[in-house]
Amino acid sequence: MVSVEILEEDPISIKVLLKEIEGSYANAIRRFAISEVPCMAIDDVVILENSSVVYDELVAHRLGLMPLRTDLQRYRLREVCDCNSALGCNKCSVLLVLDSEAVDKVKTVYSGDLVSEDPFIRPISDAIPLVELAPDQKIKLEAYAKLGRGKEHAKWQPSTVSVLKETGKRDEFLLEIESVGSLAAREIFLKAVELLNEKLTSFAGVAGGLK
Fold first, then answer.
1. What is the pLDDT of residues 2-32, one digit of tens each?
2. In terms of domains, do 136 and 174 share one?
3. Domains in the chain, number
4. Where are the alpha helices (DSSP H) in the chain?
5. Domain of residue 73, residue span
6. What distance in Å separates the CA atoms of residue 40 and residue 121, rounded to the nearest whole number?
7. DSSP code of residue 22
8. Closest CA to 61 of 79, 41, 81, 31
């Protein structure tokens, strides 16, 4: 029977000792922690006004790569949501608004200037610089965040590190996960295991039907 022992843990990182487990299964958990566990990221940006020197496309790119806090209990992937909307609904999408202007001196616009319709879904830091405005320049936009997976785009990777190491003992491995901050490291690990088991169960059902 598989044994799990948490050796070290904080909100951002976790180190887990896996015992009595096949290497392929342990490695699948590692991979799922990067590519399958969903997290929030900005995917659609509507630029209403931008008189800065930064192109609209670059502003959207910066917003997309900015990690957002994520709640997997209250939001669902857009492809399984029943709203059938391109921009989503309050079950699968979160609107963040930016409206900033420089008056008489240069102003740096930060991630903390974004206003989210859901106070929990916001940038993991308020100090991420987005654009610099010269006097009389302005930027105004709407950004729509949704859940996605790392296998679709790097902006949806919840982990910066997911490493599996052999301990030298048979069927024993050390798994280390570091979060970007969107989800707690423990939640990433548990969700990776959950999703892997769901896929294996689904596969077993399909395989059983082929007999």
1. 899 999 999 999 999 999 999 999 999 999 9
2. no
3. 2
4. 23-35, 56-64, 185-209
5. 40-149
6. 8
7. -
8. 41
